[in-house]
Amino acid sequence: MKxxxxxxxxxxREDAPALQALFEQDREYWLVIEGAPLRDxxxxxxxxxxxxxxxxxxxxxxxxxDIAFLDMxxxxxDPQTWWLGLIFLSPSVRNAxxxxxxxxxxxxxxxxxxxxxLRLAVAEDNPGARRFYDRLGFRFVDRRTRTIHTGAKIExxxxxxxx
Length: 163
What we know:
about 160 residues; alpha+beta; Aminopeptidase; 7-stranded mixed sheet; 5 helices; about 30% helix; about 30% strand
C-alpha cells in the first residue's frame, strides 16, 4: 500500500508497543468502538486477532508514520471482499483528510490485489464514523450484534464499498 508523502510499513509482532502507544492517544475511542476500555495489551490483541479458521497470512496490517493504523483481512467474508477491521488515526491528525486518503489508497491496494469490495463494520454509537463512510460511498449491507471480550454486546452496521 502506498500514499504519497507518508511512510507506510507492514506491522509485525515487534510493532505491538508502537501500536499500543498510538492507541493510548485516544482511550475514549475504545469505549465507543468496543464498548470497553483500552486493554494494556490492545496493540498485540489487535495485531493477532483474526476470525476463527481464518489464515493469519491473509491479514494485512499497516502503520502509517506512527500516526495511523490499518488492519485488513484479504478474502473475508468472501474471496472477492476485503474486510477493514480497524482504521485508527492519532487524534492530532483527524479531520484533515488523511482518513479519506488512506481509504482511497486502501481501495487502490485492494483493487490491484484482485478485490472487488471493501467491507467494514461501524458501531451505531459512532455516528461521525458512519457519516464519514457514507460520504466515501460505502453502502449499508447488514446490521449485526457483536459480543466483545468483556461479554458486552454492541450493535454494528456492516458497510461495503464496491471497487
